[in-house]
């Protein structure tokens, strides 16, 4: 609450600069963050689509590679000599067996000239095991290949069989890890006759060459796994390929986002239907958005620089724009200190120019009134003119500056708190009141006094920001009744100052006016302020009773005493004016209860004619 009060009393320049910079920075940073979020979302989607296209191309290349291996199993059918040799029965001749083996071995060696270095070994399995490989290895010619599942499967279908990752078979001491393509071989003369099978063993070098062309960045990787979760290919050891594969299988989606160890990854996957392998591509979202992050940070830097430049420009603009207004506020402070020789150079045609002109007129009028008041008081007290009309005129002119200074204080406070519209409105009201007072005689109609009270209370209600409520309940039949000018204003002002100003909560002021049964008119000004203690009330009643219409010097002493104590000057003034005007039978009475409020009763004759 304390900070908020301090903010309320900031200068207009400070508020304008603060909110201008706040709005500029807020809008720029909000736009940058929203743009970054939208850009990263779109970029991640585009990246996902691009990666999906890349692994689809990898899948196509691997399928093409496997198709080459499948076509390699058909090569015996392209050589009639090989097929005839395979069909020959040479069990009874060792020489024929030797020739058959040499012929087939020579054919297989020609196959191994094939530039694909990923082909590890080729087997032709008929009555014997015929094989050639790139690397020398001991072949187990006594191996019962007929018992392998892949051989039995090949014997039951004419389609090529894909054998997943396994240790190379039909060799001694174990071979390397390979995958194989197996194809049933049938006689070209009798298609119903099965001669055996051809088996091509291949390593993963060809697949590695295809996958190595795909760059998933330093934070990502590319993996190929089979259904048994064997890792066929991996581009990095930093990531757990099996864990990623499990998450892909669990989601059932080709694209997903995961979080591992505080890092977000984008997963793309596709299935190779021929081999039943799964390709998993992993992209680091942080790495994908690195450029976007750099662009965002650069945007923030530019926003700060632009905001600083805007602040500097706004500072000079606000300083120049508010210079006239701040000058008026400065002049008002000088007026508060009693300097009425100030003047605003009003050479503008806008609202500030009008405000300056009104201010000059107001100060000029106050200066004239004070000069008149000073001159009149000087005449009264120097020449000791005790006539009633002279005393009334002196008191009347003493009250007006008191009211004007209070109103000027209100307008000054409104100017300082940035409420220019209200200040201008109150200047209008004050100017209207001054014009009315300059045309007033010593007696005015009650309606005019009520209009002035309405304007005054409206200004004060604005000053206290709604804490002050007021109501005028005067019998309309009394509106044409003549009364001394500014008779009730000091009483109402006293209720505002000692009632509303000293109280934090709501304060209500009600003004009643009615005829009494005895032919007089009673006005009551009641407030719900702090009220007075019995001791303070007793002192005030004593001051009011000491005022005698035939002894003005006593009243003056009371005024001085009231001024020194800070209590009752307005009430004493009004009471003296009434008694000077109408006699000692009329005047003011006060009733008050501490903590509940104060009531001031003003008794006047019905006709409003004072006795001479």
TrEMBL record:
It is an enzyme of class 2 (transferase). Its EC number is 2.7.13.3. PROSITE patterns: HAMP (PS50885). The keyword Protein biosynthesis does not apply. One of its GO terms (molecular function) is phosphorelay sensor kinase activity. The chain crosses the membrane at residues 298-318. It is a multi-pass membrane protein. Residues 319-371 form the HAMP domain. One of its GO terms (cellular component) is plasma membrane. It is found in: Cell membrane. The keyword Nucleotide-binding does not apply. Keywords: Cell membrane, Kinase, Membrane, Phosphoprotein, Transferase, Transmembrane, Transmembrane helix, Two-component regulatory system. InterPro entries: Bact_2-comp_sensor_kinase (IPR050640), dCache_1 (IPR033479), HAMP_dom (IPR003660), HATPase_C_sf (IPR036890), HATPase_dom (IPR003594), Sig_transdc_His_kin-like_C (IPR004358), Sig_transdc_His_kin_internal (IPR010559). It catalyses: ATP + protein L-histidine = ADP + protein N-phospho-L-histidine. It holds the Pfam family HATPase_c. This is histidine kinase. The lineage of its organism: Bacteria, Bacillati, Bacillota, Bacilli, Bacillales.
């Amino acid at each position: 609450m304390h900070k908020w009060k301090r903010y309320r009393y900031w200068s207009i320049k400070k508020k304008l600069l603060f909110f201008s910079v706040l709005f500029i920075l807020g809008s720029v940073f909000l736009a940058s963050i929203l743009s970054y979020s939208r850009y990263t979302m779109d970029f991640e989607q585009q990246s996902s689509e691009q990666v999906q296209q890349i692994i689809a191309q990898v899948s196509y290349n691997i399928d093409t590679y496997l198709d080459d291996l499948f076509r390699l199993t058909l090569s015996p059918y392209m050589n009639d000599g090989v097929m005839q040799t395979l069909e020959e029965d040479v069990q009874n001749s060792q020489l024929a067996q030797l020739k058959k083996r040499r012929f087939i071995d020579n054919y297989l060696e020609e196959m191994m000239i094939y530039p694909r270095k990923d082909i590890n070994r080729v087997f032709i399995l008929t009555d014997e095991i015929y094989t050639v490989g790139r690397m020398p290895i001991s072949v187990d010619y006594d191996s019962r290949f007929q018992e392998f599942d892949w051989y039995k499967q090949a014997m039951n279908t004419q389609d090529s069989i894909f054998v997943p990752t396994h240790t190379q078979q039909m060799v001694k001491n174990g071979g390397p890890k390979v995958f194989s393509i197996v194809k049933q071989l049938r006689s070209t003369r009798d298609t119903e006759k099965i001669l055996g099978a051809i088996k091509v063993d291949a390593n993963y070098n060809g697949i590695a060459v295809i996958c190595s062309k795909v760059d998933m960045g330093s934070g990502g990787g590319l993996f190929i796994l089979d259904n048994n979760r064997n890792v066929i290919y991996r581009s990095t050891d930093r990531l757990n390929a099996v864990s990623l594969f499990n998450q892909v299988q669990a989601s059932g989606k080709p694209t997903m986002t995961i979080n591992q160890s505080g890092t977000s990854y984008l997963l793309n996957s596709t299935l190779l239907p021929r081999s039943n392998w799964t390709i998993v591509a992993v992209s680091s979202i942080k790495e994908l958005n690195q450029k976007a992050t750099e662009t965002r940070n650069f945007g923030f830097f530019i926003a700060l620089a632009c905001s600083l430049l805007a602040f500097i420009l706004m500072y000079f603009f606000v300083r120049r724009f508010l210079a006239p207004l701040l000058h008026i506020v400065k002049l008002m402070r000088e007026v508060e200190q009693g300097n009425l020789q100030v003047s605003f150079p009003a050479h503008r045609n806008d609202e500030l120019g009008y405000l300056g002109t009104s201010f000059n007129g107001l100060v000029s009028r106050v200066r004239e009134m004070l000069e008149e008041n000073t001159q009149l008081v000087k005449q009264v007290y120097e020449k000791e003119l005790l006539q009633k009309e002279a005393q009334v005129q002196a008191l009347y002119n003493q009250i007006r500056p008191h009211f004007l200074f209070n109103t000027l204080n209100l307008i000054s406070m409104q100017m300082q708190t940035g409420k220019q519209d209200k200040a201008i409105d109150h200047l209008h009201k004050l100017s209207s009141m001054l014009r009315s007072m300059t045309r007033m005689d010593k007696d005015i109609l009650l309606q005019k006094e009520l209009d002035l009270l309405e304007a005054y209370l409206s200004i004060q209600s604005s000053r206290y920001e709604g804490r002050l409520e007021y109501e005028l309940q005067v019998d309309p039949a009394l509106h044409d009744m003549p009364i001394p000018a500014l008779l009730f204003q000091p009483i109402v002002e006293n209720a505002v100052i000692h009632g509303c100003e000293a109280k934090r909560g709501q304060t209500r002021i009600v003004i009643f006016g009615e005829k009494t049964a005895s032919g007089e008119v009673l006005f009551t000004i009641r407030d719900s302020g702090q009220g007075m203690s019995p001791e303070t009330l007793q002192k005030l009643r004593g001051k009011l009773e000491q005022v005698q219409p035939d002894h003005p010097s006593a009243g003056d002493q009371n005024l001085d005493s009231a001024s020194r104590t800070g209590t009752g000057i307005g009430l004493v003034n009004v009471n003296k004016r009434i008694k000077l005007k109408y006699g000692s039978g009329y005047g003011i009475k006060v009733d008050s209860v501490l903590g509940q409020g104060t009531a001031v009763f003003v008794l006047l004759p019905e006709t409003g004619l004072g006795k001479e």
